[in-house]
């Protein structure tokens, strides 16, 4: 059975999903990343009579924002949750690189109209090329590389991979694909098969949302708590309904303006793809009915946190004096507190409940 590895330019795919969404006729279109590699290879096999193909690995190369305006915290966190889901649920190999937003909003439309700033992506294409070439060159690599890409920069890569005796298949999106990739005459000798358009397999790669009944765990919630959602929930993470989430966003912005330093955020530490540093701290104050509090770090510095920063506990479960681990998004300046990013409550392990089998 031919061994296949799939290499996805995640940044390109992400920014071109809208074309597929338009053609799919449902606005909430998302790709089912669990089904994507298999759907592509079975299409490839059917069209070319290749028999069964064995997808041994799927890589996704992407980027995530750092040094963004903290108003966009939830947006940024979604991106990280997405990479976590790819790794944990579907065993993708994800390589993600930071994009520096220089303290600006993440979406172009949220920035000042005359702001010439444009975020610069680094490394994604080179990382994809390095991996594809590496696995082409080692003995236990692949027989066939599937590249899910659109940018023309990859053509020398495909040539080299083929010169190493491996096959290359290109999968792309019609509205965003370098012409040479779909050229049937293929003068540059980039590929072994006709291009496959994701546009032609929309139904097969669409994510079918599963509705679940969950309780909104927000202390601000009004009315019945049980609602349905198609959101994926990570283990132990409390669910908040749409209404509460938008209330939180407003609240958090206001509170941070009031209680935290004006200093620019300190996410730059992640610049080199390192995980954000984790600190030990203790909950030093809580304003329960407003949903926020402060953490004291061992060095005495204080950090604001909001209930949406909790990763593993309900707001009601947190008490003054509790020990936590947390990341920092803003350093304290003068008398003003810094701001925490993710806050994890150190929950006491209840021995008997776990060990009783
Ligand atoms: Zn709610």
Q: Would you write up a description of this structure?
A:
The protein is of the alpha/beta class. The chain folds into two domains: 2-205, 5'-nuclease (Rossmann fold, 3-Layer(aba) Sandwich); 212-345, Nucleic acid-binding proteins (OB fold (Dihydrolipoamide Acetyltransferase, E2P), Beta Barrel). It is built from nine helices and 13 strands. The protein has a six-stranded parallel β-sheet with strand order 3-2-1-4-5-6, with helices on both faces. A hairpin with a 4-residue loop joins strand 10 and strand 11. The longest helix is centred in the first third of the chain and has 18 residues, at 73-90. The chain is elongated, with a radius of gyration of 23 Å. It binds zinc ion. Zinc ion is lined by residues 216, 218, 221, 240-241, 243-244. Zinc ion binds next to helix 8.
């Amino acid at each position: 059975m031919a061994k296949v590895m799939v290499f996805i330019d995640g940044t390109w795919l992400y920014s071109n999903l809208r074309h597929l969404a338009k053609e799919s006729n449902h606005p909430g279109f998302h790709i089912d990343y669990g089904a994507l590699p298999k759907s592509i290879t079975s299409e490839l096999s059917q069209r070319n009579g290749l028999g069964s193909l064995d997808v041994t690995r799927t890589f996704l190369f992407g980027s995530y924002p750092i040094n963004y305006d903290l108003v966009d915290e939830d947006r940024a966190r979604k991106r990280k949750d997405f990479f976590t889901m790819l790794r944990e649920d579907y065993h993708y190999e994800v390589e993600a690189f930071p994009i520096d937003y220089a303290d600006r909003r993440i979406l172009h439309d949220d920035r000042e109209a005359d702001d010439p700033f444009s975020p610069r992506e680094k490394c994604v294409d080179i990382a994809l090329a390095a991996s594809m070439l590496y696995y082409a060159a080692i003995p236990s690599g692949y027989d066939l590389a599937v590249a899910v890409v659109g940018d023309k920069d990859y053509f020398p890569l495909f040539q080299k991979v083929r010169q190493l005796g491996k096959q290359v298949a290109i999968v792309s999106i019609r509205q965003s694909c370098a012409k040479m990739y779909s050229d049937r005459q293929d003068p540059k000798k980039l590929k072994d098969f006709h291009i496959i358009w994701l546009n032609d397999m929309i139904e097969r790669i669409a994510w079918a949302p599963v509705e679940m009944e969950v309780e909104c765990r927000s202390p601000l919630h009004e009315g019945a708590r049980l609602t349905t959602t198609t959101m994926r929930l990570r283990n132990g993470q409390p669910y908040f309904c749409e209404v509460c989430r938008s209330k939180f966003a407003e609240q958090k912005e206001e509170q941070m303006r009031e209680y935290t330093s004006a200093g620019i955020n300190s996410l730059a530490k992640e610049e080199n793809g390192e995980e954000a540093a984790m600190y030990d701290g203790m909950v030093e104050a809580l304003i329960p009915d407003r949903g926020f509090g402060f953490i004291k770090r061992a060095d005495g510095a204080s950090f604001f946190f909001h209930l949406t920063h909790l990763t593993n506990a309900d707001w009601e479960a947190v008490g003054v004096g509790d020990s936590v681990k947390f990341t920092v998004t803003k350093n304290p300046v003068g008398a003003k507190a810094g701001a925490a990013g993710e806050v994890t409550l150190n929950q006491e392990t209840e021995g008997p409940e776990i060990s009783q089998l």
